[in-house]
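User: Fold this; tokens only.

Assistant: Input:
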Amino acid sequence: MSHEHLAPVEIAARLRETALFAGLDDEQLQRLVELGEIVDLAPNDVLIREGEQADALYVVLDGELEVTKQSGSSQIPLALVGPGSLQGEIAALEGGRRLASVRATGTAEVLRIPVGAIRELLAAGPDVALALIRTAVARLREIESTLREREKLAALGTMAAGLAHELNNPAAAAMRSVGALTSAVAAAESLPHPVPPPRPPEGTPPPRSALERADRVAELEQVAGGEAGASALMEVGWTPEALRAQPPDAIRWLAADATVHVLLGELEMALGRISEVVAAVKGHTYLDQGPVQRVDVHIGLQQTLVLLRHRLRDIEVQADLADDLPEIEAYGSELNQVWTNLIDNAIDAMDGRGILSVRAAREPATDGTGVRVEICDSGSGIPPEVVARIFEPFYTTKEPGKGTGLGLHISHTVIARHGGRIEVDSRPGRTCFTVSLPPVLPA
């Protein structure tokens, strides 16, 4: 694309329109124009790509640009910007990686200002530095506000996916049991049964292994004459010796009766699992309650583990939650979001396999009236240079699209709002986040 560019004096006028460069004199503006480079963009050209190393900032001279941030496989729009807008200044000043991507929606013209030119500019005086800081802070607040809402929606989506998985399995099991129960009841009713009906012997220990279970079923099958009936008879406690003592005509009815009882047990278990998940959701989100409650952290941690159970399939969970935890004053749903963030991060750190340790006890620093929670994982650990910055907003070691860099920052903010502390200790094979919470919220 080629067209007639703006004259240097017009570019200087555009620069003066920005909050960042408004305080520069004519000579400084002219120097900035000389150090910069005009870049022409065609529709959909990418000016800044998220995750790349920053080496310059840009001033939009003409046209419109779209700012987006990757989340999974999609690009989340953050803003549309036009002439006079400043882009890429945060990463350029920090010398870090780009926090978002910027592309042209149509033809556009921008001024590329390399980092060296900015350093020369900052030497001009404190007014320029202050203006730059104000612009960068305002931009960070805008991005953080947008991504906080996105983080909430992402957490809601994660929970919804987990709920669909957790509820679908027991619901399907319940439907299977109901269907089989109809046939089992009909079969039992069609057979003559002894009066009073014999009961299985008491005190029969359950099988200790899958092999022992298979052996018992095989023995009972020889007596009962059917594998399905034999399995049910074993489940309710019949032994081959006790079954042989029954009249032959009664054995078929006993197998059908045992099948009914087993299916009723499976149905009760499936419905209980559904009730458990629904109760966990209601408690986890503090539905129908005010923002501040007396909170039992023990229950909050258990509910979080229930809701994340679909991600804990191949992870050994070691939960040590003291029974005498005091209730504390807290923003219940916010606190549960912290537990969700920390446990979710621990699962990611272990790539879905390892040992997750969740401990909760009274906080000694508050004479036992507060609560201390430790969430540890057996992952590869966090390097010291990362630990030093781990609670900073937008700081993430995950590749673009895998995280916003706000999860731990939000957790830190929530705990600080409660007047508590969150700390991290990491070495290869063990990373622990420790949260200390006082008994009441700060005034």
